[in-house]
Amino acid sequence: MNTTPQPAPGSGITYAAAGVDTAAGDRAVELMKEAVAATHGPTVLGGIGAFAGLVDVSALRDYRRPLLASSTDGVGTKIAIARAMDVHDTIGRDLVGMVVDDIIVVGAAPLAMTDYIACGAVVPERIADIVRGIAEGCTLAGCALVGGETAEHPGLMSPEDYDVAGAAVGVVEADALLGPERVRQGDVVIGMDASGLHSNGYSLVRAVVSAAGLTLDQDIEDFGRTLGEELLEPTRIYTADLLAVLGDTRTGGAVHALSHVTGGGLAANLARVMPRGLAARVDRATWEPGAVFGHVARWGEVPQLDLEGTLNMGIGMVALVAPEQADAVLAVLAERGLGARVIGEVVGEETLPEPGHPLEHVVTGAKGVEGGAVLLVGQHPGWA
Questions:
Q1: What is the pLDDT of residue 11?
Q2: Would you kindly state where each structural domain of the chain is located, as residue ranges?
Q3: Which residues 6+ apart lie within 8 Å of 22 measured at CB?
Q4: Residue 2: which pLDDT band, with cuts at 50, 70 and 90?
Q5: Fewer CB atoms near the end CB (10 Å): N or C, the chain?
Q6: Edge-to-edge strand order for the sheet containing 162-173?
Q7: Would you call 291 exposed, middle or buried from its count of C-beta atoms within 10 A (0-12, 13-18, 19+)?
């Protein structure tokens, strides 16, 4: 006999009353289905809603020694700008860029990606906008979006709060793996244009904007748009462009290492792919950062070295390239519409001069990697 007390009809606490709306979750899935399906090629099995995404990897049988590369990341406090602007369809592209551009660094082509969205309350249209952005980014990267999770956390997050994270896996032939082992003295350092701030340093940027009394709807002449629109510019996704370089007959074997310029700035991330005994000498005079970097510096009176240790300063990806093939690499990138230029060279670490100016400084041992060094010299055009 069941003696469990039964609540009177209509008097009990339901899941919906506790703050979780499963119907809204189902509605969000319906709104995103088409965008997700658009990233699926013939190697993706099944559709949205399965417990696990399936990818046919039969093609790996053609590899001599396939290596799987994986990466996971988020977007950080850039989400605060998206929330304030009530614009949510660009954050997904940021997420994809942060993940897949770490995978291409080792020379791997991304195969599949999954996402995770945590929120205080499911607003179907907002969740669908986020996922549509993720799907768009996956399409740009040539990567399938094969699964995801939307988790509603009432009581832990406010109804307007959300955060996103993602993970991806890719593959590279073992003998095509890029990294410090391939870097040689005399290699050329090529810097590729960032689209803007990308998705790092927004805690600093937001603090500067607040201290300067600026508003996101404020038109900034140098940007040609509002401050909020500039800050929401999506992270550039370099994967397809770099796969084109790696696969072009003119540039085969040219790229020895790549560095994705994310948190910590250019020098710290470039140091991660420098071998012991070698150093990259990078000349700031070879490129001019976008207007947003100068404005952040002036609005917040941010010291340049602190700015450089936080933001990408207009260079979002770096390649270390055999000098005799540097022009060919630049030509392929130019054909694809990606701005790039030589910004330095690889030298023996013992040849580095003692810094003779406050802005000249050597970065080593970045993010736990005990490798070579990076020396920043000179000054950007137009910067005092």
A1: 63
A2: 20-173, 180-377
A3: 15, 16
A4: low
A5: N
A6: 66-74, 162-173, 109-119, 144-152
A7: middle
Q: Which residues pair with 384 in a beta bridge?
A: none
**Per-residue pLDDT at 87 exceeds 70:** yes
**Sign of the torsion formed by the C-alpha atoms of 195, 200, 201 and 206:** positive
Residues 6+ apart with CB under 8 A from 58: none
Phi/psi class of residue 52: alpha, beta or left (left: φ > 0; alpha: ψ in -120 to 50)?
Answer: beta
Whether pLDDT at 31 is above 70: no
Structure confidence by residue, pLDDT tens digits, 133-167: 999 999 999 999 998 889 999 989 999 999 999 99
pLDDT single digits (tens) 160-209: 999 999 999 999 999 999 999 999 999 999 999 999 999 999 999 999 99
How many angstroms separate the CA atoms of 255 and 259, rounded?
11
Q: Where are the alpha helices (H) located in the chain, listed in sequence order?
A: 22-37, 78-85, 91-103, 124-141, 202-211, 227-231, 239-247, 265-271, 291-300, 304-308, 326-335
Asked whether the domain spanning 180-377 has the same topology as the one spanning 20-173, the reply is no
Three-class secondary structure of residue 374 per DSSP:
strand
The CATH class given to the 180-377 domain equals: alpha beta
Position 92 scores a pLDDT of 96
d(CA 208, CA 297): 9
* Burial (0-12, 13-18, 19+ Cβ within 10 Å), 81: buried
Task: Provide the pLDDT for residue 304.
Answer: 96
Rounded distance, CA 155 to CA 68, Å?
39
What is residue 195's DSSP assignment?
S
According to CATH, the topology of domain 20-173 is 60s Ribosomal Protein L30; Chain: A; (3.30.1330)
Confidence (pTM): 0.91
- Cβ neighbours for 365, distance < 8 A, ≥ 6 positions apart: 271, 371
DSSP string, 264-290: THHHHHHHTTPPTTEEEEEEGGG----
Contact 240, 137 (CB under 8 A): no
With 0-12 / 13-18 / 19 or more C-beta atoms within 10 angstroms meaning exposed / middle / buried, residue 341 is middle
Torsion (CA) 362, 368, 371, 375 in degrees, nearest 10: -20
